[in-house]
Amino acid sequence: MAITADSLAGAIERRSRWTQLRLTVGRNRNVLVGGSLLLLIVAVAVLAPVLMTHDPSFQDPGERLLAPSSEYLLGTDGSGRDVFSRVVKGAQLSLLVGIGVATATSIIGGFIGLITGFVPRVDAPVMRVMDGLMAFPGIILAIGIMAVRGAEISNVILALTVVNTPRMARVVRSVVLGLANTQFVEAAKSSGCTLWRILGVHLLPNTLSPLIVQASFVFAEAVLGEATLSFLGAGAPPEVPSWGGMLSESRLFLSQASWTMIAPGAALTFTVFALNLLGDGLRDMLDPRLRHR
Amino acid sequence: MVSFIIRRLVSMIPVMLMVATGVFLLLKLTPGDPVGVILGPDATEERRQALRDDLGLNDPLILQYVRWLGDAARGDLGDSLFLNQPVLTSLWERAEPTLVLTLLSTLVALSIGLPTGILAAQNRGKWLDMGSMGIAILGISMPTFWLGLNLILIFAVTLRWLPVAGYAPLSEGLWESLRYMILPAITLGVAQAALLARMTRSMMLDVLSAEYVRVARAKGLRERRVVYFHALRNALIPLINVAGLIFAALLGGAVVTEQIFNIPGIGRLLIQAVGRRDVPLVQGTVLVIAAIYVLVNLIVDIFSAVLDPRLRQT
Is residue A147 part of a domain? Predict the structure, then answer.
């Protein structure tokens, strides 16, 4: 392919955009640190089969509550299972739920926000439903849903999505409300764009920044929410290694085997910390108006 | 002002209706037959049918809904399947620990969060700011139940200063009761303190860069007076909204905290009810918590409107 002036200009443009992004991220320590920590956790979850030293579900009654050693890096729990392998395996569940909830919330909440912000007829009834959902403290609504649906990972994702969707919808809606009367939307309307085109092509790109920021916080909330539900015995099924579930079991052995409590809790705190840091950084980076909030 | 309050009261009605409908549907969607739960597996089909008629379970859904709504509006939330008493009585008996816990945690959150946020804002960019905000984001990230377990490990198991878990009612003396509540209140309050510190800092920064603060400084007022009199007062309005959020978080957090410390409050009642599939009790508890929450939001709105007349218009 011949190099034309146009393709060259395009390449320079792309290049400079990329450099720009790299510079912005480089300058924002929170994004850099939070993002790196998150990548580390993702790596642990992906490499779990390699990293695990034991079968995380294998119970060995003869090896109960052993202190950390070279054989059991973080000791064993009350059923003689290897704590290190369970913590590593637990990262998979946390990330699965976190990513699932963040994605579902972004799509559903984003869609609701776009529609309600732009179509007044839909706004009032849908937002009343959202208000109703927001009238429950999140964890209690999630417990209620889990009580009805039963202990399944998919139900955990569903429950936490229901809890987090209203706030996402509100964030997107408020952006769309602010744009509804701007000239470019006016122009799109008068040039005969369909509703879906206006929503998808003209409004959606403008909502992406706040949506991404909110999604990173939802991710953190979801990881914490899954652990809380599992801790309360209303989360993932008991046979799935989960940090919250491990913490719940550790209560019985607190005085004899504190490692069963410290390891999963530290992993959980580390993950949520990384996500909160990332969210804070993204907000500063993508939405300068909200800086220092 | 009066018309504002009336308008806000009226606007509560659809929300509460939504909540009640949601809670009712929760019951209807739950798999399992309450009749089977009450009578046990050995009951004859006739007895089951008779009880179903008695409980009105054979009526059309819409009729059951209207009847349930009517009862709930009059304060009758039905009977618990396992405790053999009205739901409202069960809730009332468990209210004291939860109330004490929530109030004490609020105290913890306020007494740590507010001063930290103000100090951080005053020292923006310095080590005090960076340090306290670093701790704050850690405080938000740390799950309450892990913090609680660590506190138990340190102060109850290792140092033996405080009891591991349990509750002493206020009637057994204030100190005795407090001893059991110190760790739970810190557990629940710290995350909210961290949240509050972050919010306070950002509100104060907004306000401190406002013109009237510059005017106050230009007048030669002492910095303390500027911060606490001019700035804090204006930062308080959004902070009251945050207080509403915090209260909601405390209500939800109480469920977890009561579970860790074996406190016989409403949160534990809810978990037990979920475990036993005691649907009327789950329903009633969730409804009451949501009602308290909506009411708190109303109070927050009214407070804000009292402080800031501009808010009365909307």
Answer: yes
Nearest CA to CA, how far is A239 from chain B (Å)? 18
Q: What is the DSSP letter of B78?
A: -
Q: In this structure, is residue A43 part of a structural domain?
A: no
How does pLDDT run across B143-172, given as a tens digit for each residue? 888 888 888 888 888 788 888 777 878 788
Residue in the block written with tokens 């849903």:
A145
Q: Who has greater pLDDT, B36 or B87? A: B87
Tell me the two tokens of residue B182. Answer: 């110190």
Q: Give the three-state DSSP class for A82.
A: strand
Classify residue A186: in a domain, yes or no: yes
Alpha carbon of B153: minimum distance to chain A alpha carbons (Å)? 7
- HSE (side-chain half, CA atoms, 13 Å) at A21: 5
Would you state the pLDDT for residue A292? 44
What is the tens place of the pLDDT at every residue in B214-245? 888 888 888 888 888 778 777 777 777 777 77
Q: What percent of chain B has pLDDT over 90?
A: 1
Contact A254 B248 (CB under 8 A): no
- Torsion angle defined by CA atoms of residues A230, B97, A134 and B24, in that order, rounded to the nearest 10 degrees: 80
Q: How many domains is chain A built from?
A: 1
The single-letter code of the amino acid at A25 is V
Average pLDDT over residues B7-25: 81
Interchain pair B259, A269: CB under 8 A: no
Domain containing A140 — which CATH number?
1.10.3720.10
Mutate to test the interface with A, among B37, B81, B146, B202 (most CBs of A within 10 A): B146
pTM score > 0.90 for this model? Answer: no
DSSP letters, A6-54, are: HHHHHHHHHHHHHHHHHHHHHH-HHHHHHHHHHHHHHHHHHTHHHH-SS
Tokens linked to A33? 């640190």
Residue A293's pLDDT is: 40
Can you list the domains of chain B with their CATH numbers? 2-86 (no CATH), 99-264 (1.10.3720.10)
* pLDDT at B36 > cutoff 60: yes
Find the DSSP H helices in chain A. Answer: 5-27, 29-46, 48-51, 83-118, 120-134, 138-149, 153-179, 183-190, 195-197, 204-231, 243-250, 259-286
Task: Report the Cα B228 to chain-centroid distance in Å.
Answer: 29
- Residues of the domain holding A164: 96-293
